[in-house]
Amino acid sequence: MIRENALRAIRPLKPLGSSTEHDPKTLFLARRTDAGRGLPPYYLVYFLLVDLLGFPHAGKWEKTAWSVAVDWNGRGFLIEHRKMGLGVFAQDLKRDEAAACELVIRIHKAVRAAQPFFEWLAGDAVSRSEVNVVNNASSLYGRYGFMRDSYHSKREEFEKRKDERVETHGSNPGRGTWTHSSFPAYHLIAESNWLAISAVEAFFAWTEHIFIHVALMTGRKSTATEVTEMAEADWSIKFQSALGLTDSEAKTHYDQLVSLRKELRNYVAHGAFGKQGEAFYFHSGAGAVPVLLPHKVGSRKFKLAHGLSFDAPAAFGAMEDFIAYLWSGERAPAEQYIQQSELPLILTYVHDGTYSRAMNSVDDMEEFVSHLSGEFDRAVDMDW
What we know:
Elements: H1 2-10, E1 14-15, H2 24-28, E2 31-32, H3 42-52, E3 64-72, E4 75-82, E5 85-90, H4 93-113, H5 115-127, E6 132-133, H6 137-161, E7 166-172, E8 176-182, H7 184-217, H8 224-232, H9 235-243, H10 248-269, E9 281-282, E10 289-290, H11 294-297, H12 312-326, H13 332-341, E11 345-346, H14 347-351, H15 354-358, H16 362-380
Helix pairs in contact: 1-4, 6-7, 7-9, 7-10, 7-12, 10-12, 13-16
């Protein structure tokens, strides 16, 4: 039914035939039309024409991923995905531009009619775990690194200027002179704390992402369903899925980071009000008193104080120690792939043992990353 609906929507477009008006040489050298720039995404056009409707297509060749020769009202055209993008290519641009515009409109209609087929294709691929998992580790870690380094720079400036006092003098007619004093260090310490809190946020965003990739590279997870479940799980579940808690060192890092996440990151992320009365000061004869009394917060390692300040060095120590632990031992090769290469995680490589072989050593992983990066570069250049 979907195929029939798509065929009705795309008519009179059909595969190139013996009766189609075309010169094989001219068609082979066809030029890009302006109308072809408005085609749907290349993969939808391919799925429609080749997979659903069965149009014959030429295989990969230099700077071209695929090419479909078509007949539009008896006139020959090419629909090709070239290095410079998908397009409709015509034998005579002046004569064929209007027809190409009509052809593109028909393809759009057929793509809409075929939408259930595309959804089935995607769902089927996911069910068989024939997918790549996007890798944003480098970008997310870069954000954390920027915030961390900015914090340290601001703290260094604070140390240099902590005793600085800036005085401004002036006078008012009939009221004499005045002096205003300001202390740059006050603003610098506040800005450094804001940067530190942002760094904590960035760190946990990176770990939420990285745990999924570590679980795949180490073989703890292997299917698209498991990736989806991890993505939806809480941070603590992600940590345990990737690293486990049987190792005492992993448990120590887990406890520290859970404390940092609960007592600082989650508190700030949810509006800095907290769920235990942190936002309240109750009325008393002694004045306004915090509802969360000091003895109840004494055990907190990373607690916030007035003005959203906290023990930033302790927080950075916990995060940096964990990063060193994460990329140590048997996981060291994984850093080369996940953090350095920016390559996606290919689930079929989890299943067939490709990743497990590359995880034997850092050298093996570097060699594998070099090879796979070359394959990706050639694919981008359509250098078949």
